[in-house]
Design goal:
Elements (H helix, E strand, L loop, with lengths): L2 H4 L5 H31 L5 H7 L10 H28 L5 H23 L5 H24 L1
Helix pairs in contact: 2-4, 2-5, 4-5, 4-6, 5-6
Length: about 150
Amino acid sequence: MGILDAISLENEVFRAYAFWTAITVLKMLIMSPLTGRLRFKNKTFANAEDVKFTSPKGKAKFDDEEVERVRRAHRNDLENCIPFMIIGLFYVLTNPVASIAINIFRAGAISRILHTISYLNSLQPWRALSFFVCLGCTIYMSIQVAMFFY
């Protein structure tokens, strides 16, 4: 299978990759407006111009637990979803077994959604378990890609 065949809409693995990557990106994009909503709700802004926009006598604050929890969850997404999505595309190029690849993409994306829900609601051990599911998927794909292209 050539590269053009691998990234074709005819390839069910590529279609699954595209779908679950889109879901993961949408999940990540939700985090910014959520942070903004909590900043306005709690009147917690990190930039002086934002504080002045809402309260002329207010000061920038960096210690609101609710806002910081969302920011940490978002940062965790950036640290984990992006590598998952990048290696996933390379994994598609290895012509993997479709059922395995599709389930890896599904597990990775769903685990990231569950990780965010768990993070925002302080749910352990679910947060750790969901983190390790996606990490395991990313490591598995990385090994497969490295062995294929070596």
